[in-house]
Specification:
By secondary structure, this protein is of the alpha/beta class. It has 2 domains: about 5-175 and about 285-365, Alpha/Beta hydrolase fold, catalytic domain (Rossmann fold), CATH 3.40.50.1820; about 180-280, Rna Polymerase Sigma Factor, Chain: A (Orthogonal Bundle). Helices cover about 35% and strands about 15% of the residues. It is built from 12 helices and 12 strands. It has helices spanning about 120-135, 145-160, 175-190, 205-210, 210-225, 230-235, 255-265, 270-280, 295, 315-325, 350, 360-365, and strands at about 5-10, 15, 20, 25-30, 40-45, 70-75, 80, 85-90, 140-145, 165-170, 305-310, 335-340. The strands form 3 sheets. The chain has an 8-stranded mixed beta sheet with strand order 1-4-8-5-9-10-11-12, sandwiched between helices. It has a two-stranded antiparallel ribbon with strand order 2-3. It has a two-stranded parallel ribbon with strand order 6-7. The chain is globular and about 65 Å long.
């Protein structure tokens, strides 16, 4: 598989939904496969909260492949021998694009809290500018899960003639109080950590030593990514072998899992950027700027294939069904379909249970649905 990673710099101002301007900015993106002469074999992949441009394949010095490697690659469902696949790191993410710990031009200082709030619409607008620069004006499909699904839906509304098909997984049309509440735990944990230093920490120190506040908040996030059934199956009531049952701080396996994932996370993800991305997720509302949700959906011209997951307790399947049901009330009802994956895993099923929906996506791309 041919993997190409590039950084594109933009000097023209990006006018944000908030009314602010971001200038200049850069976006890191990765491509797989080859663009054909007609440029009609493009598939856009949009990533979730902590994802990035590296969706598939493995670098020479990399132990773990890209985050959707099971779905994208030569002879896989999203076949890079057939399609030209592109994935860009969103604005606001510290994993390759301009964010809160980027240098604020023309100074040598970091943005920190002077960085503007970036919305899902802003992320999508910046990507569309990138695609225009690359001479890509029409794509076969846009596919993404969770925050990536939000981006896919925003593409469908804001750029109705850009994609033939839109495939959002495990997403929502507007973030609910349930999810906002989980995110609030992380926000407060970060802000109340003395080592956060009101946002004026040294990023190198965080990368080396971590941040307890972000670690604790990430633990709450991991609870929302799984389901009770998957936790029962994965951990049961197993106890850590080296911890004594009657030691006050002896741990169950599920506690060790949260410790490991929580405390390792701040060493590779910036806390300020996490706050900005959570803000984008919290305020996401596909109907913002329109008279109603129905009016927003009326703009859609792409075929919309919604995929929900039965035991998703972050973005519940009924949230995806609501998009389908509301679309049925519009003149675009023939453009939408809904597929629910029978999964007990939880929200992260879109990342780890690919075999349960991959054939459905393949049928979409093959024009069978």
């Amino acid at each position: 598989m041919n993997i190409v990673t590039k950084v594109k710099n933009f000097t023209n101002p990006l006018y944000l939904e908030s009314g602010r301007i971001l200038e200049p900015y850069e976006i890191t993106y990765e491509t797989y496969g080859k663009l054909n002469r007609k440029k009609d074999n493009v598939i856009v992949i949009t990533h979730a909260l902590t994802g990035n441009h590296h969706a598939s394949g493995r670098y020479e010095d990399e132990a773990k492949a890209g985050w959707w490697d099971g779905l994208i690659g030569d002879n896989k469902v999203i076949d890079t021998k057939k399609y030209f696949v592109i994935c860009a790191t969103v604005l606001g993410s510290p994993r390759g694009s301009t964010c809160a710990i980027s240098t604020m031009y023309p100074t040598d200082k970091l943005y920190r809290f002077k960085f503007p709030v970036i919305t899902i619409r802003d992320m999508v607008k910046a990507q569309k500018i990138l695609f225009n620069k690359l001479g890509i004006y029409k794509v076969k499909a846009i596919i993404g899960g969770s925050m990536g699904g939000m981006q896919a839906l925003q593409f469908a509304v804001d750029f109705p003639n850009f994609a033939e098909s839109i495939i959002p997984l495990a997403a929502t049309h507007a973030t609910t109080p349930w999810t906002i509440a989980f995110n609030k735990v992380t926000i407060e944990s970060i802000l109340n950590d003395d080592d956060f230093k009101d946002g004026y920490y040294d990023p190198k120190d965080i990368a080396e030593n971590g941040l307890k506040g972000l670690a604790i908040g990430r633990m709450a996030g991991h609870i929302s990514f799984l389901s009770k059934d998957s936790m029962d199956l994965k951990f049961g009531r197993d106890y850590v072998e080296t911890d004594g049952l009657y030691e006050l701080f002896g741990r169950f396996q599920v506690e060790r899992y949260l410790d490991y994932n929580g405390y390792s996370f701040p060493k590779w993800f910036d806390p300020l950027s996490y706050l900005y991305l959570i803000k984008a997720i919290n305020i996401f509302d596909l109907s913002r700027g329109y008279d109603s949700f129905e009016d927003a959906l009326e703009r859609i011209e792409s075929k919309l294939y919604l995929i929900g997951f039965k035991k998703d307790f972050l973005f519940f399947p009924e949230e995806m069904r609501k998009i389908h049901q509301t679309m049925q009330k519009t003149s675009k009802k023939d453009l939408v379909s809904y597929y629910e994956v029978d999964s007990n895993y939880g929200h992260d099923a879109f990342l780890v249970e690919i075999d349960k929906f991959s054939s459905y996506i393949k049928d979409i791309l093959d024009g069978k649905i």
